[in-house]
Amino acid sequence: xxxxxxxxxxxxxxxxxxxxxxxxxxxxxxxxxxxxxxxxxxxxxxxxxxxxxxxxxxxxxxxxxxxxxxxxxxxxxxxxxxxxxxxxxxxxxxxxxxxxxxxxxxxxxxxxxxxxxxxxxxxxxxxxxxxxxxxxxxxxxxxxxxxxxxxxxxxxxxxxxxxxxxxxxxxxxxxxxxxxxxxxxxxxxxxxx
Length: 193
Description:
It contains 7 helices and 4 strands. It has helices spanning about 10-25, 25-50, 60-85, 90-115, 120-125, 140-165, 170-190; strands at about 1-5, 5-10, 130, 135. A hairpin with a 2-residue loop joins β1 and β2. InterPro entries: Cell_wall_mannoprotein_1 (IPR021054). This is Hydrophobic surface binding protein. It holds the Pfam family HsbA.
């Protein structure tokens, strides 16, 4: 630490050490991120499932849209954490991550299947809403597709980052999980095209 005129300054090396300590991410942070994503995915899936097949409102869908956007942001933050991990992780850490990802994968595919099942309900929503006396256009199917494209990009980036840090013998299992998620997103996006 340097002292100039009664004011203390951290030297460059001290500052780098402090920053590194704050930003250090370990495998347990990565697993916790995946667990948080699983919790969000489960809640989102329940919301999609509960969306009425008939009589739903644009405002109900906009709540789903906000959740989907928030989930993509959480996935993007998790991806940054995973990319901060040393590559490759140990065999034991790779197994921890693989187990967490294997739990999350069917939750994602189930959610995407529910989004396809609700397509008729989303398409039936009116194309405009009235807010404070103004009519605003809302193209729900286009919003669904936009959310799916963003979710796909986020999930694919996280999956790629997870596979990249696996020890060589776990890469095939990680790649299978990534391909399952990529395929499910592709099929769901195709349903809204």
